[in-house]
Protein backbone atom coordinates (compact mmCIF):
# COMPACT_ATOMS: atom_id res chain seq x y z
CA UNK A 1 0.00 0.00 0.00
CA UNK A 2 1.28 3.49 -0.82
CA UNK A 3 0.12 5.22 2.33
CA UNK A 4 1.57 8.61 1.39
CA UNK A 5 -0.98 8.88 -1.43
CA UNK A 6 -3.98 8.77 0.90
CA UNK A 7 -6.30 11.63 1.72
CA UNK A 8 -6.89 12.40 5.41
CA UNK A 9 -10.36 10.87 5.36
CA UNK A 10 -9.04 7.68 3.74
CA UNK A 11 -6.21 7.51 6.29
CA UNK A 12 -8.74 8.00 9.11
CA UNK A 13 -10.84 5.06 7.85
CA UNK A 14 -7.78 2.79 7.90
CA UNK A 15 -6.80 4.00 11.38
CA UNK A 16 -10.20 3.35 12.95
CA UNK A 17 -10.45 -0.06 11.26
CA UNK A 18 -7.00 -0.73 12.73
CA UNK A 19 -5.67 -1.66 9.29
CA UNK A 20 -2.74 0.72 9.76
CA UNK A 21 -1.28 2.47 12.78
CA UNK A 22 -0.45 6.15 13.00
CA UNK A 23 3.24 5.24 13.38
CA UNK A 24 3.03 3.34 10.07
CA UNK A 25 1.39 6.34 8.40
CA UNK A 26 3.99 8.74 9.72
CA UNK A 27 6.82 6.39 8.78
CA UNK A 28 5.42 6.05 5.24
CA UNK A 29 5.37 9.82 4.84
CA UNK A 30 8.86 10.18 6.35
CA UNK A 31 10.12 7.51 3.91
CA UNK A 32 8.50 9.43 1.07
CA UNK A 33 10.23 12.60 2.28
CA UNK A 34 13.57 10.73 2.26
CA UNK A 35 12.88 9.55 -1.29
CA UNK A 36 11.79 12.81 -2.95
CA UNK A 37 12.75 15.77 -0.76
CA UNK A 38 16.13 16.15 -2.49
CA UNK A 39 14.22 17.03 -5.66
CA UNK A 40 11.29 18.97 -4.14
CA UNK A 41 12.93 20.91 -1.29
CA UNK A 42 9.63 21.71 0.42
CA UNK A 43 10.89 21.69 4.01
CA UNK A 44 12.76 24.14 6.19
CA UNK A 45 12.62 21.67 9.11
CA UNK A 46 11.55 18.03 9.44
CA UNK A 47 10.24 17.10 12.90
CA UNK A 48 10.80 13.34 12.72
CA UNK A 49 11.12 12.52 16.43
CA UNK A 50 8.28 14.74 17.60
CA UNK A 51 6.04 13.26 14.87
CA UNK A 52 6.74 9.66 15.81
CA UNK A 53 6.22 10.42 19.52
CA UNK A 54 2.85 12.04 18.77
CA UNK A 55 1.86 9.11 16.52
CA UNK A 56 2.58 6.67 19.35
CA UNK A 57 0.24 8.66 21.61
CA UNK A 58 -2.54 8.45 19.03
CA UNK A 59 -1.95 4.72 18.53
CA UNK A 60 -2.22 4.20 22.29
CA UNK A 61 -5.56 6.03 22.29
CA UNK A 62 -6.87 3.88 19.44
CA UNK A 63 -5.65 0.74 21.17
CA UNK A 64 -7.42 1.82 24.36
CA UNK A 65 -10.67 1.96 22.37
CA UNK A 66 -10.93 5.76 22.42
CA UNK A 67 -12.81 7.47 19.59
CA UNK A 68 -10.45 9.67 17.55
CA UNK A 69 -11.23 12.71 15.43
CA UNK A 70 -10.78 12.78 11.64
CA UNK A 71 -7.31 14.37 11.76
CA UNK A 72 -5.88 12.32 14.64
CA UNK A 73 -2.71 10.43 13.77
CA UNK A 74 -2.57 11.86 10.24
CA UNK A 75 0.72 13.50 9.11
CA UNK A 76 0.60 17.18 8.13
CA UNK A 77 2.88 20.14 7.47
CA UNK A 78 2.81 23.76 8.66
CA UNK A 79 4.03 26.75 6.71
CA UNK A 80 7.09 28.04 8.55
CA UNK A 81 5.42 31.33 9.48
CA UNK A 82 3.23 29.70 12.14
CA UNK A 83 4.76 29.65 15.61
CA UNK A 84 5.53 26.24 17.06
CA UNK A 85 6.67 26.14 20.67
CA UNK A 86 10.20 24.78 20.92
CA UNK A 87 10.46 24.25 17.14
CA UNK A 88 12.34 26.74 14.98
CA UNK A 89 10.05 29.11 13.04
CA UNK A 90 11.95 31.08 10.41
CA UNK A 91 9.57 32.69 7.90
CA UNK A 92 12.30 31.52 5.50
CA UNK A 93 14.20 34.66 6.49
CA UNK A 94 17.77 35.09 7.61
CA UNK A 95 16.50 37.57 10.21
CA UNK A 96 14.57 34.75 11.98
CA UNK A 97 16.91 31.87 11.07
CA UNK A 98 17.37 30.87 14.73
CA UNK A 99 14.01 31.90 16.22
CA UNK A 100 12.44 29.31 18.52
CA UNK A 101 8.97 30.53 19.60
CA UNK A 102 8.03 30.33 23.28
CA UNK A 103 4.38 29.66 22.36
CA UNK A 104 2.15 27.94 19.79
CA UNK A 105 -0.06 29.63 17.22
CA UNK A 106 -3.76 29.01 17.92
CA UNK A 107 -4.06 26.78 14.82
CA UNK A 108 -1.16 24.69 16.14
CA UNK A 109 -2.91 24.31 19.51
CA UNK A 110 -6.17 23.35 17.80
CA UNK A 111 -4.46 20.79 15.57
CA UNK A 112 -2.56 19.31 18.52
CA UNK A 113 -5.82 18.96 20.45
CA UNK A 114 -7.29 17.18 17.40
CA UNK A 115 -4.39 14.70 17.43
CA UNK A 116 -2.78 16.01 14.23
CA UNK A 117 0.85 15.01 13.67
CA UNK A 118 3.22 17.71 12.38
CA UNK A 119 6.01 16.19 10.27
CA UNK A 120 7.68 19.46 9.33
CA UNK A 121 7.70 23.16 8.59
CA UNK A 122 7.39 24.23 4.97
CA UNK A 123 9.42 26.70 2.92
CA UNK A 124 7.92 30.01 1.77
CA UNK A 125 8.83 33.25 0.09
CA UNK A 126 10.51 35.26 2.85
CA UNK A 127 7.79 36.65 5.16
CA UNK A 128 5.21 35.31 2.66
CA UNK A 129 6.17 37.99 0.14
CA UNK A 130 6.27 36.41 -3.28
CA UNK A 131 4.59 34.08 -5.74
CA UNK A 132 7.22 31.41 -6.45
CA UNK A 133 9.32 30.64 -3.30
CA UNK A 134 12.27 32.17 -5.19
CA UNK A 135 12.28 34.87 -2.49
CA UNK A 136 12.94 32.33 0.29
CA UNK A 137 16.04 33.35 2.23
CA UNK A 138 17.21 29.72 2.14
CA UNK A 139 16.35 27.94 -1.16
CA UNK A 140 13.57 27.64 -3.73
CA UNK A 141 11.02 24.83 -3.61
CA UNK A 142 10.32 22.96 -6.86
CA UNK A 143 7.03 21.98 -8.43
CA UNK A 144 6.48 18.20 -8.08
CA UNK A 145 4.82 18.12 -11.54
CA UNK A 146 7.95 19.55 -13.17
CA UNK A 147 10.97 20.35 -11.07
CA UNK A 148 12.06 23.02 -13.58
CA UNK A 149 8.94 25.01 -12.65
CA UNK A 150 8.08 27.00 -9.51
CA UNK A 151 5.49 25.62 -7.07
CA UNK A 152 3.90 29.06 -6.76
CA UNK A 153 3.96 31.08 -3.58
CA UNK A 154 4.20 32.23 -1.08
CA UNK A 155 3.02 28.93 0.49
CA UNK A 156 5.00 26.96 -2.13
CA UNK A 157 6.47 24.47 0.35
CA UNK A 158 3.05 23.70 1.84
CA UNK A 159 1.54 23.13 -1.64
CA UNK A 160 4.48 21.11 -2.98
CA UNK A 161 4.67 18.87 0.10
CA UNK A 162 1.05 17.77 -0.39
CA UNK A 163 1.41 17.37 -4.18
CA UNK A 164 4.58 15.28 -3.64
CA UNK A 165 3.03 13.02 -1.01
CA UNK A 166 5.34 14.39 1.69
CA UNK A 167 2.27 15.31 3.74
CA UNK A 168 -1.37 14.25 3.67
CA UNK A 169 -2.41 17.88 4.05
CA UNK A 170 -0.85 21.17 5.12
CA UNK A 171 -1.57 24.69 6.27
CA UNK A 172 -0.53 27.82 4.42
CA UNK A 173 -1.36 31.50 4.68
CA UNK A 174 -2.88 33.73 2.03
CA UNK A 175 -2.46 37.52 1.91
CA UNK A 176 -3.04 38.09 -1.83
CA UNK A 177 -3.25 34.56 -3.23
CA UNK A 178 -0.51 32.73 -1.34
CA UNK A 179 -2.65 29.61 -0.79
CA UNK A 180 -4.77 29.59 -3.94
CA UNK A 181 -2.05 30.33 -6.52
CA UNK A 182 0.35 27.57 -5.32
CA UNK A 183 -2.61 25.17 -4.97
CA UNK A 184 -3.40 25.91 -8.61
CA UNK A 185 0.24 25.43 -9.70
CA UNK A 186 0.61 22.16 -7.76
CA UNK A 187 -2.78 20.59 -8.58
CA UNK A 188 -4.20 20.49 -5.05
CA UNK A 189 -7.15 22.07 -3.23
CA UNK A 190 -6.35 25.36 -1.45
CA UNK A 191 -8.78 27.41 0.64
CA UNK A 192 -8.41 31.03 1.75
CA UNK A 193 -11.10 31.34 4.43
CA UNK A 194 -13.13 34.47 5.20
CA UNK A 195 -11.03 37.07 7.02
CA UNK A 196 -11.52 36.50 10.75
CA UNK A 197 -12.68 32.88 10.51
CA UNK A 198 -9.32 31.32 11.44
CA UNK A 199 -7.27 32.88 14.23
CA UNK A 200 -4.10 34.72 13.22
CA UNK A 201 -2.62 34.44 16.73
CA UNK A 202 0.90 33.10 16.26
CA UNK A 203 0.90 33.62 12.50
CA UNK A 204 3.89 35.88 11.89
CA UNK A 205 2.29 39.01 10.48
CA UNK A 206 2.81 40.26 6.93
CA UNK A 207 -0.30 42.42 6.22
CA UNK A 208 -2.68 42.14 9.16
CA UNK A 209 -5.90 43.20 7.41
CA UNK A 210 -5.35 40.64 4.62
CA UNK A 211 -3.54 37.61 6.14
CA UNK A 212 -5.55 34.43 6.67
CA UNK A 213 -4.53 30.81 7.39
CA UNK A 214 -6.07 27.97 5.37
CA UNK A 215 -5.60 24.35 4.30
CA UNK A 216 -3.98 22.59 1.32
CA UNK A 217 -5.58 19.19 0.77
CA UNK A 218 -5.91 16.50 -1.88
CA UNK A 219 -9.69 16.83 -2.06
CA UNK A 220 -12.58 19.02 -0.94
CA UNK A 221 -13.74 16.72 1.87
CA UNK A 222 -10.35 17.06 3.57
CA UNK A 223 -10.50 20.83 3.19
CA UNK A 224 -13.89 20.88 4.95
CA UNK A 225 -12.58 18.63 7.72
CA UNK A 226 -9.49 20.74 8.35
CA UNK A 227 -11.70 23.85 8.52
CA UNK A 228 -13.90 22.08 11.09
CA UNK A 229 -10.80 21.94 13.31
CA UNK A 230 -9.06 25.29 12.69
CA UNK A 231 -11.97 27.74 12.30
CA UNK A 232 -13.61 29.55 15.19
CA UNK A 233 -13.42 32.56 17.46
CA UNK A 234 -10.19 33.17 19.39
CA UNK A 235 -10.02 35.73 22.18
CA UNK A 236 -6.27 36.02 21.51
CA UNK A 237 -6.92 37.55 18.05
CA UNK A 238 -8.87 40.81 18.25
CA UNK A 239 -9.82 40.50 14.57
CA UNK A 240 -11.24 37.01 15.05
CA UNK A 241 -14.94 36.90 14.17
CA UNK A 242 -17.37 35.86 16.93
CA UNK A 243 -19.33 33.49 14.69
CA UNK A 244 -20.49 29.90 14.97
CA UNK A 245 -18.68 27.27 12.90
CA UNK A 246 -20.94 24.77 11.14
CA UNK A 247 -19.93 21.20 10.30
CA UNK A 248 -18.57 21.96 6.84
CA UNK A 249 -18.82 18.33 5.67
CA UNK A 250 -22.62 18.71 5.81
CA UNK A 251 -22.40 20.87 2.69
CA UNK A 252 -20.88 18.10 0.57
CA UNK A 253 -24.20 17.01 -0.90
CA UNK A 254 -23.26 16.76 -4.57
CA UNK A 255 -26.36 18.77 -5.44
CA UNK A 256 -25.96 22.21 -7.03
CA UNK A 257 -29.18 22.37 -9.03
CA UNK A 258 -30.41 25.94 -9.42
CA UNK A 259 -27.35 27.42 -7.73
CA UNK A 260 -26.35 30.75 -9.32
CA UNK A 261 -22.77 31.13 -10.48
CA UNK A 262 -21.46 34.48 -11.75
CA UNK A 263 -18.53 34.72 -14.14
CA UNK A 264 -16.84 38.13 -13.73
CA UNK A 265 -15.91 39.17 -17.26
CA UNK A 266 -12.89 41.16 -16.01
CA UNK A 267 -11.22 37.84 -15.00
CA UNK A 268 -10.84 36.63 -18.56
CA UNK A 269 -8.00 38.82 -19.76
CA UNK A 270 -5.90 39.08 -22.89
CA UNK A 271 -2.67 37.15 -22.61
CA UNK A 272 -4.14 34.37 -20.48
CA UNK A 273 -2.62 30.95 -21.21
CA UNK A 274 -5.00 29.31 -23.75
CA UNK A 275 -4.92 25.96 -21.92
CA UNK A 276 -6.00 27.68 -18.70
CA UNK A 277 -8.93 29.38 -20.39
CA UNK A 278 -9.96 26.10 -22.07
CA UNK A 279 -9.84 24.14 -18.79
CA UNK A 280 -11.87 26.77 -16.92
CA UNK A 281 -14.47 26.97 -19.72
CA UNK A 282 -14.70 23.16 -19.59
CA UNK A 283 -15.38 23.38 -15.86
CA UNK A 284 -18.11 25.98 -16.42
CA UNK A 285 -19.82 23.66 -18.91
CA UNK A 286 -19.58 20.79 -16.42
CA UNK A 287 -21.18 22.89 -13.66
CA UNK A 288 -24.03 23.82 -16.01
CA UNK A 289 -24.50 20.14 -16.78
CA UNK A 290 -24.81 19.55 -13.03
CA UNK A 291 -27.68 22.04 -12.91
CA UNK A 292 -26.02 25.32 -11.91
CA UNK A 293 -27.26 28.52 -13.52
CA UNK A 294 -24.27 30.35 -14.99
CA UNK A 295 -24.28 34.00 -16.05
CA UNK A 296 -21.70 36.63 -16.85
CA UNK A 297 -21.32 39.45 -14.34
CA UNK A 298 -19.05 42.42 -13.74
CA UNK A 299 -16.67 43.50 -10.96
CA UNK A 300 -15.87 46.87 -12.53
CA UNK A 301 -13.03 47.91 -10.20
CA UNK A 302 -10.98 44.74 -10.77
CA UNK A 303 -8.25 46.59 -12.66
CA UNK A 304 -7.49 48.63 -9.53
CA UNK A 305 -6.93 45.62 -7.27
CA UNK A 306 -3.22 45.32 -8.09
CA UNK A 307 -2.28 48.94 -7.27
CA UNK A 308 -4.55 48.94 -4.19
CA UNK A 309 -2.99 45.71 -2.96
CA UNK A 310 0.57 46.90 -3.63
CA UNK A 311 -0.01 50.01 -1.53
CA UNK A 312 -1.94 48.46 1.37
CA UNK A 313 0.03 45.23 1.81
CA UNK A 314 3.49 46.91 1.81
CA UNK A 315 2.19 49.70 4.09
CA UNK A 316 1.02 47.16 6.66
CA UNK A 317 4.20 45.12 6.16
CA UNK A 318 6.49 48.09 6.74
CA UNK A 319 4.78 48.63 10.07
CA UNK A 320 4.67 44.93 11.06
CA UNK A 321 8.31 44.32 10.13
CA UNK A 322 9.56 47.26 12.20
CA UNK A 323 9.83 44.78 15.09
CA UNK A 324 12.85 43.04 13.54
CA UNK A 325 15.53 45.16 15.11
CA UNK A 326 18.03 42.64 16.46
CA UNK A 327 17.08 43.28 20.10
CA UNK A 328 14.65 40.57 21.29
CA UNK A 329 15.12 37.71 18.82
CA UNK A 330 16.58 36.76 15.49
CA UNK A 331 19.68 37.91 13.68
CA UNK A 332 21.79 40.81 14.97
CA UNK A 333 24.71 42.52 13.29
CA UNK A 334 27.40 42.23 15.94
CA UNK A 335 29.87 45.02 15.26
CA UNK A 336 27.74 48.15 15.37
CA UNK A 337 28.84 50.82 17.84
CA UNK A 338 25.53 52.58 18.36
CA UNK A 339 21.95 51.42 18.27
CA UNK A 340 20.80 53.13 15.06
CA UNK A 341 23.57 51.58 13.02
CA UNK A 342 22.88 48.22 14.71
CA UNK A 343 19.24 48.45 13.58
CA UNK A 344 20.19 49.45 10.06
CA UNK A 345 22.90 46.85 9.57
CA UNK A 346 20.80 44.08 11.18
CA UNK A 347 17.82 44.79 8.95
CA UNK A 348 19.85 45.31 5.78
CA UNK A 349 21.71 42.02 6.24
CA UNK A 350 18.71 40.10 7.60
CA UNK A 351 16.08 40.94 4.99
CA UNK A 352 16.15 39.85 1.34
CA UNK A 353 15.56 42.09 -1.69
CA UNK A 354 11.77 41.66 -2.02
CA UNK A 355 11.16 42.29 1.68
CA UNK A 356 13.29 45.45 1.53
CA UNK A 357 11.47 46.57 -1.62
CA UNK A 358 8.09 46.23 0.10
CA UNK A 359 9.27 47.91 3.31
CA UNK A 360 10.54 50.81 1.18
CA UNK A 361 7.29 51.03 -0.80
CA UNK A 362 5.13 50.83 2.31
CA UNK A 363 7.21 53.35 4.24
CA UNK A 364 6.95 55.73 1.30
CA UNK A 365 3.16 55.29 0.98
CA UNK A 366 2.73 56.04 4.69
CA UNK A 367 5.22 58.89 4.87
CA UNK A 368 4.31 62.50 5.47
CA UNK A 369 3.05 64.16 2.28
CA UNK A 370 2.19 60.90 0.49
CA UNK A 371 -0.24 59.26 2.94
CA UNK A 372 -3.38 60.82 1.44
CA UNK A 373 -2.34 60.40 -2.17
CA UNK A 374 -1.36 56.74 -1.84
CA UNK A 375 -2.39 54.91 1.34
CA UNK A 376 -5.71 56.65 2.05
CA UNK A 377 -6.63 56.60 -1.65
CA UNK A 378 -5.96 52.86 -1.73
CA UNK A 379 -8.22 52.31 1.31
CA UNK A 380 -11.03 54.17 -0.45
CA UNK A 381 -10.68 52.17 -3.64
CA UNK A 382 -10.63 49.05 -1.45
CA UNK A 383 -14.19 50.03 -0.44
CA UNK A 384 -15.20 50.20 -4.12
CA UNK A 385 -13.73 46.74 -4.74
CA UNK A 386 -15.61 45.34 -1.74
CA UNK A 387 -18.83 47.02 -2.94
CA UNK A 388 -18.45 45.31 -6.34
CA UNK A 389 -18.51 41.92 -4.60
CA UNK A 390 -21.44 42.86 -2.34
CA UNK A 391 -23.42 43.85 -5.43
CA UNK A 392 -22.53 40.65 -7.31
CA UNK A 393 -23.52 38.50 -4.32
CA UNK A 394 -27.01 40.04 -4.30
CA UNK A 395 -27.55 38.03 -7.44
CA UNK A 396 -25.10 35.11 -7.31
CA UNK A 397 -24.25 32.39 -4.76
CA UNK A 398 -20.64 32.08 -5.91
CA UNK A 399 -18.33 33.69 -8.46
CA UNK A 400 -15.99 31.66 -10.66
CA UNK A 401 -12.68 32.48 -12.37
CA UNK A 402 -9.30 30.96 -13.16
CA UNK A 403 -7.07 31.00 -10.05
CA UNK A 404 -4.11 32.36 -12.01
CA UNK A 405 -3.64 33.53 -15.61
CA UNK A 406 -1.06 30.78 -16.29
CA UNK A 407 0.17 27.43 -15.07
CA UNK A 408 3.43 27.22 -13.09
CA UNK A 409 6.18 29.30 -14.70
CA UNK A 410 9.89 28.49 -14.90
CA UNK A 411 12.48 29.55 -12.33
CA UNK A 412 13.92 32.96 -13.14
CA UNK A 413 11.19 33.79 -15.63
CA UNK A 414 9.76 36.63 -13.51
CA UNK A 415 12.39 36.95 -10.79
CA UNK A 416 13.85 40.24 -12.05
CA UNK A 417 10.58 41.97 -12.78
CA UNK A 418 8.47 42.66 -9.66
CA UNK A 419 5.38 43.74 -11.60
CA UNK A 420 5.35 40.62 -13.78
CA UNK A 421 5.61 38.54 -10.59
CA UNK A 422 2.82 40.55 -8.92
CA UNK A 423 0.54 39.97 -11.94
CA UNK A 424 0.48 36.20 -11.27
CA UNK A 425 -1.80 37.04 -8.29
CA UNK A 426 -4.11 39.30 -10.28
CA UNK A 427 -7.16 36.99 -9.91
CA UNK A 428 -6.67 36.28 -6.22
CA UNK A 429 -5.85 39.55 -4.46
CA UNK A 430 -9.35 41.14 -4.71
CA UNK A 431 -10.68 38.35 -2.50
CA UNK A 432 -8.28 39.35 0.30
CA UNK A 433 -9.13 43.03 -0.11
CA UNK A 434 -12.85 42.22 0.24
CA UNK A 435 -12.22 39.75 3.11
CA UNK A 436 -14.29 37.00 1.45
CA UNK A 437 -13.40 33.28 1.04
CA UNK A 438 -11.88 31.76 -2.10
CA UNK A 439 -10.99 28.19 -2.99
CA UNK A 440 -8.81 26.81 -5.78
CA UNK A 441 -9.54 23.30 -7.05
CA UNK A 442 -7.90 21.33 -9.87
CA UNK A 443 -9.88 21.63 -13.12
CA UNK A 444 -7.57 20.24 -15.80
CA UNK A 445 -4.14 20.49 -17.35
CA UNK A 446 -2.38 22.81 -19.77
CA UNK A 447 0.83 21.54 -21.34
CA UNK A 448 0.97 18.84 -18.69
CA UNK A 449 0.74 21.27 -15.76
CA UNK A 450 -2.25 21.57 -13.41
CA UNK A 451 -4.82 24.34 -13.84
CA UNK A 452 -6.77 25.77 -10.90
CA UNK A 453 -10.38 26.94 -10.82
CA UNK A 454 -11.21 29.63 -8.29
CA UNK A 455 -14.58 29.90 -6.57
CA UNK A 456 -15.29 33.02 -4.53
CA UNK A 457 -18.07 33.20 -1.94
CA UNK A 458 -19.90 35.45 0.48
CA UNK A 459 -18.23 36.16 3.83
CA UNK A 460 -18.59 33.14 6.18
CA UNK A 461 -20.24 31.11 3.42
CA UNK A 462 -17.43 28.57 2.95
CA UNK A 463 -20.19 25.95 3.03
CA UNK A 464 -21.46 26.96 -0.41
CA UNK A 465 -17.90 27.04 -1.79
CA UNK A 466 -17.35 23.49 -0.51
CA UNK A 467 -20.69 22.40 -1.96
CA UNK A 468 -19.87 23.64 -5.47
CA UNK A 469 -16.22 22.54 -5.33
CA UNK A 470 -17.20 19.08 -4.14
CA UNK A 471 -19.91 18.64 -6.80
CA UNK A 472 -17.42 19.55 -9.52
CA UNK A 473 -14.69 17.36 -8.05
CA UNK A 474 -16.97 14.32 -7.84
CA UNK A 475 -17.82 14.70 -11.53
CA UNK A 476 -14.15 14.77 -12.57
CA UNK A 477 -10.97 12.89 -11.73
CA UNK A 478 -8.46 15.75 -11.77
CA UNK A 479 -8.11 15.58 -7.99
CA UNK A 480 -6.96 11.97 -8.28
CA UNK A 481 -4.06 12.79 -10.60
CA UNK A 482 -0.73 12.68 -8.75
CA UNK A 483 2.61 14.16 -9.74
CA UNK A 484 5.06 11.61 -11.10
CA UNK A 485 8.25 12.09 -9.14
CA UNK B 1 8.69 60.73 -9.61
CA UNK B 2 10.89 59.27 -6.87
CA UNK B 3 14.52 60.37 -6.86
CA UNK B 4 17.54 58.65 -5.39
CA UNK B 5 17.37 61.23 -2.62
CA UNK B 6 13.80 60.18 -1.77
CA UNK B 7 14.98 56.57 -1.62
CA UNK B 8 17.74 57.55 0.81
CA UNK B 9 15.23 59.42 3.01
CA UNK B 10 12.74 56.51 3.04
CA UNK B 11 15.54 54.04 3.78
CA UNK B 12 16.48 56.09 6.83
CA UNK B 13 12.84 56.11 8.02
CA UNK B 14 12.71 52.32 7.53
CA UNK B 15 16.09 51.80 9.23
CA UNK B 16 17.61 50.19 6.17
CA UNK B 17 21.14 50.74 4.90
CA UNK B 18 21.18 50.41 1.12
CA UNK B 19 24.16 49.92 -1.17
CA UNK B 20 24.58 52.26 -4.16
CA UNK B 21 23.37 49.47 -6.45
CA UNK B 22 20.27 48.89 -4.28
CA UNK B 23 19.50 52.62 -4.28
CA UNK B 24 19.62 52.71 -8.08
CA UNK B 25 17.52 49.59 -8.43
CA UNK B 26 14.89 50.63 -5.87
CA UNK B 27 14.58 54.10 -7.42
CA UNK B 28 13.75 52.49 -10.75
CA UNK B 29 11.49 49.75 -9.36
CA UNK B 30 9.57 51.95 -6.93
CA UNK B 31 8.87 54.37 -9.77
CA UNK B 32 7.55 51.54 -11.92
CA UNK B 33 5.27 50.32 -9.13
CA UNK B 34 4.02 53.81 -8.25
CA UNK B 35 3.29 54.47 -11.90
CA UNK B 36 0.81 51.60 -11.60
CA UNK B 37 -0.58 53.19 -8.46
CA UNK B 38 -1.21 56.44 -10.34
CA UNK B 39 -4.09 54.64 -12.08
CA UNK B 40 -6.06 55.14 -8.84
CA UNK B 41 -6.03 58.91 -9.39
CA UNK B 42 -8.53 58.45 -12.23
CA UNK B 43 -11.21 57.41 -9.74
CA UNK B 44 -13.36 59.96 -7.96
CA UNK B 45 -13.47 58.85 -4.32
CA UNK B 46 -14.81 62.07 -2.79
CA UNK B 47 -17.69 60.44 -0.93
CA UNK B 48 -16.15 57.00 -0.40
CA UNK B 49 -15.29 55.83 3.12
CA UNK B 50 -11.91 54.11 3.48
CA UNK B 51 -11.80 50.38 4.36
CA UNK B 52 -8.91 49.68 6.72
CA UNK B 53 -10.32 46.34 7.70
CA UNK B 54 -12.85 43.98 6.04
CA UNK B 55 -14.89 43.09 9.16
CA UNK B 56 -17.11 45.44 11.14
CA UNK B 57 -15.31 44.67 14.41
CA UNK B 58 -14.35 47.57 16.68
CA UNK B 59 -12.85 47.92 20.13
CA UNK B 60 -12.59 44.35 21.38
CA UNK B 61 -12.34 44.66 25.16
CA UNK B 62 -11.90 42.25 28.03
CA UNK B 63 -12.02 42.68 31.77
CA UNK B 64 -8.86 44.32 33.08
CA UNK B 65 -7.74 41.32 35.10
CA UNK B 66 -4.11 40.29 35.48
CA UNK B 67 -3.24 37.00 33.78
CA UNK B 68 -0.04 35.01 33.69
CA UNK B 69 2.29 36.19 30.93
CA UNK B 70 5.45 34.87 29.38
CA UNK B 71 8.22 34.02 31.88
CA UNK B 72 11.28 36.27 31.91
CA UNK B 73 13.62 33.48 30.91
CA UNK B 74 11.39 32.40 28.00
CA UNK B 75 11.14 36.00 26.81
CA UNK B 76 14.94 36.26 26.83
CA UNK B 77 15.62 32.83 25.33
CA UNK B 78 15.95 34.21 21.79
CA UNK B 79 17.78 37.42 22.70
CA UNK B 80 21.01 38.03 20.77
CA UNK B 81 22.45 39.53 23.96
CA UNK B 82 21.14 39.72 27.52
CA UNK B 83 22.31 40.71 30.98
CA UNK B 84 20.72 40.40 34.44
CA UNK B 85 17.31 39.50 33.01
CA UNK B 86 17.30 42.35 30.49
CA UNK B 87 17.80 42.65 26.72
CA UNK B 88 21.19 44.19 26.08
CA UNK B 89 21.71 46.71 23.24
CA UNK B 90 24.62 48.85 22.02
CA UNK B 91 25.11 52.36 23.37
CA UNK B 92 22.08 54.63 22.78
CA UNK B 93 23.38 58.06 23.82
Short description:
The complex is a heterodimer of chains A (485) and B (93). Chain A has helices spanning 8-16, 22-40, 48-63, 106-113, 156-163, 180-186, 220-230, 274-289, 305-320, 339-350, 353-366, 371-395, 418-423, 429-434, 462-474; strands at residues 43-46, 75-79, 117-122, 169-174, 189-192, 212-217, 260-264, 293-297, 398-402, 438-446, 449-457.
Descriptive overview:
The complex is a heterodimer of chains A (485) and B (93). With 485 residues, chain A is of the alpha/beta class. Chain A has one domain: Alpha-Beta Complex (Amidase signature (AS) enzymes), CATH 3.90.1300.10. Chain A has 15 helices and 11 strands. In chain A, strands 1-3-2-4-6-5-10-11-9-7-8 form an 11-stranded mixed sheet, with helices on both faces. In chain A, helix 5 runs parallel beside helix 6. Chain A starts with 7 loop residues before the first helix and ends in an 11-residue tail after the last helix. Chain B has a domain at 4-41: Orthogonal Bundle (Histone, subunit A), CATH 1.10.20. The mean pLDDT of chain B is 93. Chain B has helices at residues 4-13, 20-37, 72-76; strands at residues 82-83, 86-87. Chain B is built from 3 helices and 2 strands; from the N terminus they run αααββ. At the A-B interface, helix 9, helix 10, helix 11 and helix 12 of A face helix 1 and helix 2 of B.
Amino acid sequence: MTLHKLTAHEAHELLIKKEVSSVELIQAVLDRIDAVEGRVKAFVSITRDEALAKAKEVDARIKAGEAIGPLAGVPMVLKDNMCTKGIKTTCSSKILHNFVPPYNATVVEKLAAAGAVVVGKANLDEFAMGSSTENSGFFATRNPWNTEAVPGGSSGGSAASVAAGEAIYSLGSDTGGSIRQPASFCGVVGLKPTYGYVSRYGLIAFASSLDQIGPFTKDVRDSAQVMNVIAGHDPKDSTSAPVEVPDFTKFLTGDIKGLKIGIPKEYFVDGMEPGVEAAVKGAIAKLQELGAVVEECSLPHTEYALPVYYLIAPAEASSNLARYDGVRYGYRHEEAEDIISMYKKTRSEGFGAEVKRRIMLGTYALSSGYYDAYYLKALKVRTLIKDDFDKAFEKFDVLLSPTAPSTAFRFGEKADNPIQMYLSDIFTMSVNLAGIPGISIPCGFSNGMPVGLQLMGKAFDEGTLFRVAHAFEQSSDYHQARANL
Amino acid sequence: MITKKDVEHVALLARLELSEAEKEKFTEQLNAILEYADALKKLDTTNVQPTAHPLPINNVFREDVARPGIANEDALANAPEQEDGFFKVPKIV
